[in-house]
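ZP: hey, is the pyridoxal-5'-phosphate complex queued? I don't see it on the tracker
AM: it wasn't, my bad. submitting now with these inputs:
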Amino acid sequence: MTTNRVPMSSPDITEAERQAVMEVLVTTVLSMGEKTQAFEEAVCKFSGSAHAIAVSSGTSGLHLCVRAAGIGAGDLVLTTPFSFIASSNVLLYENAVPVFVDVDMDTGNIDPTRLAQVAEQLAKGGKVAETWLPRKGASAKKPKAILAVDVFGQPADYDAVTAIAKEHDLVLIEDSCEALGAEFKGKLAGRFGQMGVYAFYPNKQITTGEGGVVVTDDSVAADFMRALRNQGRAPGDSWLRHTHLGYNYRLTELSAALGRVQMERLGELLTKREQVAAWYKQRLQDVNLVELQPLAANTTRMSWFVYVIRLAPQVSRDRLAQLLAEAGIPTRPYFAPIHLQPFMIERFGYRTGDFPIAEDLGRRGLALPFSSVMIEDQVDLVCRQLQSAIPKALDK
Ligand SMILES: *Cc1c(COP(=O)(O)O)cnc(C)c1O
């Protein structure tokens, strides 16, 4: 085992965060107290949303959105196969059906042209091109919602996505778990749908250890989600009265206190990530067989979550990853498309070739070490190792 010379990712924690967590530890309130409220207020202030509901993870936040949207058994939800597994899992939790739409080759986000076609076909209720529905476990009908993902910190095409949602009367849920602070035409990611979610796992732009937050302007949905995160206790319910089937999706006060300080530092953290991305770009933009993540013209701010390069087809991505690992440079293939995960194949009958663009990006994408605490020398080291490993990873 070679020890890593650079970490794959890293939280960015200062004395202020440590202090804030210590302050909670000397109180008696470790859950659902004023720290959670203050954290939610900070998120509202930043995002401009009327409500913020802090939860135990991005996944639990997305699940609450699915419940609040009334998505249930057999309902169809248009979404992307090129994402982290959680964005589809939350649909399966309710026995709903993800209807995958292939992605745009440049951004890796849901392709609006295909999305419009699929929505149109399904809305007509007529015969649907077979490949647009899973081979099993689904029947054609009008979809209920769109679940869009802002992949790698780049917003989806919300001019198109919001227009399609409106035309077909679909709820739009925005998975911005990778995109806190990103902007589409100057407007914040997470704010295009009826509900949006940010996540705070340690590799995200800010962290609470584990955690997430739902943002929405819909007061009814917000009350419902607050109830569900807290074992289904509706406003006015006593501790042992549960109006709804709920969950324990609460965030701890320790996490909220940490998140509050991280939110205050968000501007600094995003700027540092931009700097690291710029160092990578400088060194890699002219490297043969390496393609950098394209940014759409409407991405007025990229919120760098990971730094993913795309390798030319003649480079063996996995061989390259192996060589880099031996040199102490960790990397990750990003993403393995959701429709080809074992349980998805089993349940819905997907096959290789169903979503060729997502699969192609999935085969060629490699995430390099990335975080706001990375220094230029580390970027330098990664890039030098990468350049010397590429010729050794060519398919013969
Ligand atoms: C990180 C992430 C989530 C949520 O992850 P948690 O680990 O549950 O906080 C959801 N969707 C996407 C696309 C993500 O990257």
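AM: back. The first strand starts at residue 51 and ends at 55.
ZP: great, adding it to the tracker
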